[in-house]
Amino acid sequence: MSYPQAVFFDLDGTLIDTAPDMGGALNRMLVKYSRPVVAEADYRSSVSHGSIALLTLGFPELDPKTEMHDLRLEFLATYEQDIARDSVLFDGVDTVLNTLESRSIPWGIVTNKPEALTLKLLDALDMTRRCCSIVAADTTTHAKPHAAPMKLACNRASVDASNCFYVGDAARDIEAGRVVEMQTFVAEWGYIDAETDDTTAWGADFHLNSPIELLEHLQNA
Hints:
This protein has 221 residues and is α/β, with parallel strands linked by helices. The chain has 9 helices and 8 strands.
């Protein structure tokens, strides 16, 4: 194919480094409950797995399925209060997005972050208007790795999934992209745990060590 019809990205750990604000929200809660705070090196690799994964670091004795509902709501409210205090685009991301736009290649976001938080974060960073589509965890009845959010993102952008790229930093991202036949890329700069995440087993088409490397695939497409 020539240029992709569109390029879609995961959000946390792929486009935006949200770990400082998500980890900060966790630690503010831990201080409130007189618990030890969690070091960035320990919470960073959990950010892509969402609020329950983060809360498990601070409340390991609680059952994630039955005992964290209220804590999760409190965490989300705490995080929302300072959702973009320290979150920034990863180095090279803005260059990639500007290049896509200069070549008239639409780009969008498919994330497992709740929609209200996704839109608030993107609004704060002045990115919402730039997206061809934004699909979050609760935009459809299923989240990634289900195909539904991927298909909706493509429908909103009026593109064919098989002619699109998807970039993410979790196994479910690659699975979701593959199920709709997108070309898939692992964002190796993201929130990947070197001890537990074998990215070579995810079945991605390509691995990127930095966002800028995606531009090489545009040139070769």
